Amino acid sequence: MEIFIKDIPEEGLHESGQFPASIFDLSPEDSIRPMGAVFYDVHIHAFDGIISFYGTLKGPFQLKCGTCLEYNDYEADFPEWNSDLDLEEKQRSFLLEEVIREEFILNLPEHLRCDELIENHLCPKAELVDRVLGSAESDEEPGGNPDAWKALDDL
Ligand SMILES: [Zn+2]
């Protein structure tokens, strides 16, 4: 949906609707899988060189667990979406679907372990990873592997 900046009135523009999952155009290997249409309800204001957006975004996704690499359902719900678009010189319009696509990609959690997504669920690879990290720790000098220490802290 192309929006021309000259068409945005001073009091702002209110748009709501949905875009198909195809706006994401991601590889099937990507850690984010859009699973259906995404819904938006947005207020758009034009300022000098900047377009500002606020509203709500929702949509069904699957996210890949960073540990077991399984995909799990995730309902994205951003009730207080708020962002700005810096306009290029002479830019006269923008595509709303591109703004919304970026916003989902920026805000979806990355490398989340599936136990953080699903209640009462243990990542099938969690124990294995803990064991590998545990043995790495005993082989190394204390503090020798900051990543392993950080991973243990996160548990
Ligand atoms: Zn997992």
Question: If you had to describe this structure to a student in words, what would you say it looks like?
Answer:
The chain has 155 residues and is an alpha+beta fold. The protein has 2 domains: 2-119, no CATH class; 125-155. It has helices at 96-107, 114-117, 126-139, 146-154; strands spanning 2-4, 13-19, 32-34, 38-47, 50-64, 71-86, 93-95. The strands form 2 sheets. Strands 2, 3, 4, 5 and 6 form a 5-stranded antiparallel β-sheet that branches. The protein has a two-stranded antiparallel sheet with strand order 1-7. The protein is elongated. It starts with a strand and ends with a helix. The model has no long low-confidence stretch (mean pLDDT 89). Bound molecules: zinc ion.
Q: Please indicate the count of domains.
A: 2
Unreliable runs: none
Estimate the helix proportion, in percent.
Answer: 25-40%
Structural class computed from helices and strand pairing: alpha+beta
* Average predicted local confidence, pLDDT: 89
Cofactors and ligands? zinc ion
Q: Please outline the major beta sheet.
A: 5 strands, antiparallel
Using the alpha-carbon principal axes, give the shape: elongated
The total of helices stands at 4
Strand content: 35-45%
Give the helices and strands as they follow along the chain: EEEEEEEHHHH
How widely separated are the two ends? 44 Å
Question: Rg to the nearest angstrom?
Answer: 21 Å
How many β-strands, per DSSP? 7
